[in-house]
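Z., the sequence and structure:
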Amino acid sequence: MFSGIVEGVGLIKEIFEKQDSRQFKISAKKILEDLKVGDSVNINGACQTVIERGKDFFTVEAMKETLDRTNFGQLRVKDPVNLERSLRLSDRLGGHLVTGHIDGVGEILDIIPQKDAHIFKISFPKQYAKLVIEKGSIAVEGISLTVIEVFENYFTVGIIPYTWENTNLKNKTVKDPVNLEFDLIGKYVQKFLTDKTESQITWEYLKEKGW
């Protein structure tokens, strides 16, 4: 589990193509302090397992499901990537609950510079429309953000100067794909409200059990 608070930006040093996967060797600084093989790392929003650890890098392997669901298939050497280590139970939840399981990929439709922020217009897959709400939480490239406005096929978020300078968003341009994870609580609420499965607990069952 993650919080969507990016700890640093790494650079892809090498990419190794496998039959049904891709391995990424990523240079990093801060997160390497206590990182070890087997740990989970959020990379651009996707939870990945460390399979190799070097002095100034670590390596992960993205399986086909990850490549199909994310923009990992389009990553190239020297691309910057957002990094966050998994949460400890004692950590503060500075953003919101982020699982690292990407729901889909959106596209940057526009980037509007303002005096103290950059406004991003980002498209989203139509099937997730009910999970995008004004002032709700969303993870974009692993960054916990608050939705400003929602339209038929896109939403807007505001990027403050700190986030701009300390994530890979400053390297993004219009038409770039971005990984999206919709709010975990919202997904469970939607499933609960739309699940038509009849409960196995009936009045007859309760009477039979002595209630």
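The radius of gyration is 19 Å. The longest helix spans residues 184-194.

Let me know what you think.
H.
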